[in-house]
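Follow-up to my earlier ticket, as requested here are the two runs.
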Amino acid sequence: MDTAEPLRWLLEQIGGGVTLIQAGCLPREVVAAAFARYSHWYPIGKGPRSETDLFQLADLHELGCTQRLVTKRHRTLKLSVAGGVQLADHQLRQHTAALAWLGTTVAERQVAECALGAPWAEPRLREDLCDAVHPVLAASLTHDDGTVMEVKDTERLLWRFWHLGRELGYLDERDRSADAPISLSATGRFAALAALRVLAEGPKGRATASERGSAGGQAGVGEAAHQ
């Protein structure tokens, strides 16, 4: 099972090269193809005009750049050697997507570890998921001054987990309302197992605010912008 299908699709679209438009955005034909394939990414209905109108595509583009799956020369974006290898190897691509879903900081990974198990048996409301995750995080994460995490910190960290999980197709959440239940998709279950294996192999420790990174206000701003 391909557990990173949207990422695979984007790598296929980029292939041997596409010409970027202004501000380094993907060309309109790629945006149109993304909307045709993933129409739920843009709920307004008329269709996006550019990558900036389709934030899921923009974030996948950024993921490809961050993971060095693509390379840019002047206005041409094409697959890197690593991108070509991962396009042909679904296990490597799954590993890359799982790493991206987990995040890069200690706090993001601890949030993911808690959040991955909560909706495994049944869908969970956002509020219920936060209530299930927060006590664990409050016991394991602290601010630099030693104070425990607040609920708003948990919500900001969970936002990143929800956000990327939806883009990669790991979370079934077509209804974006605040009271919509969240559940793991079929590919999300495989990806969750891969992510948990990565976590099991990594170091454990008590994180501080300086390690958390995304526990600050930026994630909260993104949440408001995309809901």
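Run two:
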Amino acid sequence: MALTGPPAAIPGREDPPDRSPAPPPSGAATEPASQTTPAPPRERPGGLASAVARIRVSTVFAILAISPLMRMAALRYAVPPGLPSRTGCDACGAPVGLTRPWPALGPAALCGHCRARVGPPPVTVEVAVLAAAVLLALAGPPGGALPALIWWLGWTIPAILVDLAVHRLPDRLTLPAAAGTWLLLGVAALDADPGHWLRAVIGGAGLALFFASTAVLLGRRGFGLGDAKLALSVGALLGWYGWPVLLFGLVLTFGLSALVSLGLLATRRANWSTHLPFGPFLLLGTTAALLLAT
């Protein structure tokens, strides 16, 4: 049997080059085979948007639940001093209550029988509640005083609507606001420096005494007793965060009052003897001071 071996080279013909890959040099590390990296899991579209939508829906429901209560309070107590609380429509006498709140206690503020306007102007309460909710959510004051501020706003907003309508702050709104504010600040002081509570008590009592003294000494030229009762909670809230915050709130309050008064005088919509309600300026000045200085 003939032995086979590599074919002999044929004269005049070149062999094709060897194209097989060269072996790696000895001692060199071999690279692992490339592997396909799994793609990261895709985020569910609309996750953040759905969360924001849920927050918006809950806020709307909260406003719809709270606003009728505030409208009811403003409707009842927006009467001149000495008159009984209002219980129904002034035009037709139809009763207005929480058992059948719509549309009288809704944003339209219309009597369900005669379609006359009832209580505060349309949408005003809802806008006020929405503005308060947005401000508290975006720049609410830190610490345990936040529940006290929420309580205070819940009673003060309808009180201010009454003050704008008939120039008085009813005790049934200002005194619960003060009592609840002091109580909630006292609860917050259990986990904070007791000096906060002491400063709140001194601030509330001192500011109320100042307002009451002007009412006694100056009569109609001074502040009303309703302003003094509202100052019980205003001074406590501002004093909780320190004397500079209390002073800043008073500066904002009196500054806003002066600017509005000068604007009304310049446009001849008021004269030097015109009496302006001071409650709205207390609300705006206090809220602005708490949001800006805390």
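The only thing I checked on run two: Residues 143-294 form one domain. Let me know what else you need.
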